[in-house]
Amino acid sequence: MNATACYFENWMEHENAEIARGLRRRDPDLLDRLIEQYQHRLLRYLLYLTGRRETAEDVFQETWVRVLERGAQYDGQHNFSTWLFAVARNLVIDLARRKKFASLDSMADDEGEPVQIAATGQTSAFDLLAVQEDSERVRNALAHIPAEYREALVLRFHEELSLEEISSVTGAPLGTIKSRIYRGLNTLMPRLKGARG
Amino acid sequence: MKPDAHERARQLVAWSDIASQSEQLWLRTHLRDCEACREYAQRTERLVQSLRTVPIAANRALVRATQARVRLRAEELKRRRERLWLVWMSCVLVGLTAAITTPLLWSGFAWLGRWAGVSNPVWQFGFVMFWIAPTIAASILFLAHGTHLADHNGRTQGS
Hints:
The complex is a heterodimer. By secondary structure, chain A is an all-alpha fold. Chain A has helices spanning 2-25, 28-50, 53-70, 80-98, 104-110, 125-143, 147-158, 163-170, 174-191. In chain A, helix 2 runs antiparallel to helix 3. Chain B folds into two domains: 3-53, no CATH class; 60-145. Chain B has helices spanning 3-15, 21-33, 35-52, 60-116, 120-145. Chain A binds chain B through residues 26, 28, 31-32, 35-36, 39-40, 42-44, 47, 57, 60-61, 64-65, 68-69, 117-121, 131, 134-135, 137-139, 142, 153-154, 156-158, 162-163, 178, 181-182, 185-186, 188-189, 192, 195-197, and chain B through 10-11, 14-17, 43-44, 46-59, 62-63, 65-67, 69-71, 73-74, 77-78.
């Protein structure tokens, strides 16, 4: 088990170093591969952060252009996903400032139609319906908790980032992140009573 | 049992990131003995499972559009870098040429001044004019052409 973990860790370090080298060269093939690899995770994070599909897709494209332009700043010491989410987050904050929103919550409340989330994967009609119902409930509940809690929960349980990585993405101290996750879960729990187990 | 032990157990459950084995052991023992915290842990697990059921996918069009945009930008940056490299190389070459030719020109102007029998300030003024004349001529040409006032569409500002 330890050997496997060690191998995986070495492989990740090697992979991150490769990505850092490729980004310094501004290798378009590498970027194509990274866009494919991180498309769902990045879009999911942006959807939860902005609350709007259109905004999320705009920021999604901007994020990759920024990754190309500022790729040399990625040091390869941390996970690429952590750096990617931090870049995306900064762009969302810039956007919120440009549009003069007081917070990310007000940004999600302001714009057009709420997010439409497409189901993926091949499942039976019954399973799909059940998952859609559950997803709908979770999505609605998440939309009604503060953005900072939502972000922490999505990064922890959807993207499976460690607490330290979440702290790195958001720039908030570790204690704050722990508090956001704990409070976020406690805020979400009463809203999701009866969720599928 | 201290009341903050329950709080601590629930926090550990929520963070799902227990570093030490002693903490894991403590949590397991606490959850075995405390029904309320055990129920909290079960509810948290169900909630986390529900969170993970939300399926979100980027569509192919978005991915392709992003890849195309990134490639286009990469080309732009490459062209800009090449242009900048040319500018830098030109600067270096101009600097080197100036460093080599200035002493020679200075000697040439001094010899010419002596040959023509003019005073030192006169040939030195001539040397300075020889140096800055191309710059002045280029500036006048650009001013006359209005190049520095043109925007991207080739129109001059204010017109």
